[in-house]
């Protein structure tokens, strides 16, 4: 392999990992700062627990520990991070990753 190409790939990988770590830290800070209240009902959640959460992002997988709790009024368990970020239950792809995948699929479809 060309030496220049190899160096460029190594540096890009380092940059991507640095970005992934920064994103993971920032999202974890968001999770830690969330009020333990349902956005839908405004009621304080009961039996709050911290659950592992993994997201697929444009810079790789990030692992978080997000709060979730029981909402007495609806009788459901709520993941505060998913609710705040507009993610469905069990959804792992971030909105930015979804947008990029859609764009790529559309662009590739246009080429054919």
Please describe what this structure looks like:
The chain has 112 residues and is of the alpha+beta class. It has one domain (3-111). It contains three helices and three strands; from the N terminus they run αβββαα. The protein has helices spanning 3-33, 80-85, 95-111; strands spanning 46-57, 60-71, 76-79. A hairpin with a 4-residue loop joins strand 2 (60-71) and strand 3 (76-79).
Give a quick precis of the structure:
It contains three helices and three strands.
Q: Quick one: overall form? A: elongated
Q: Order of strands side by side in the largest beta sheet?
A: 1-2-3
For the sheet with most strands, the description reads: 3 strands, antiparallel
Which percent range describes the beta-strand content?
A: 25-35%
* Helix/strand structural class: alpha+beta
Radius of gyration: 19 Å
Count of extended strands: 3
CA(first)-CA(last) distance: 31 Å
Number of helices: 3
SSE string: HEEEHH
Poorly predicted regions are: none
- For the record, the count of structural domains works out to 1
Mean pLDDT: 88
Key features?
112 residues; alpha+beta; three-stranded antiparallel β-sheet; 3 helices
Secondary structure layout plus pairing:
Layout: H1 3-33, E1 46-57, E2 60-71, E3 76-79, H2 80-85, H3 95-111
Antiparallel strand pairs: 1-2, 2-3
């Amino acid at each position: 392999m060309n030496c220049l190409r190899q160096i460029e790939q190594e540096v890009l990988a380092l940059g991507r990992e640095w970005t992934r770590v920064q994103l993971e830290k920032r999202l974890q800070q968001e999770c830690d700062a969330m009020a333990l209240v349902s956005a839908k009902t405004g009621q304080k959640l009961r039996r709050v627990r911290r659950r592992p959460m993994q997201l697929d992002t444009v810079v790789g997988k990030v692992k978080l520990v997000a709060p979730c709790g029981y909402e007495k009024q609806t009788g459901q368990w709520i993941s505060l991070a998913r609710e705040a970020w507009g993610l469905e239950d069990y959804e792992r792809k971030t909105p930015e990753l979804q947008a990029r995948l859609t764009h790529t699929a559309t662009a590739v479809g246009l080429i054919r």
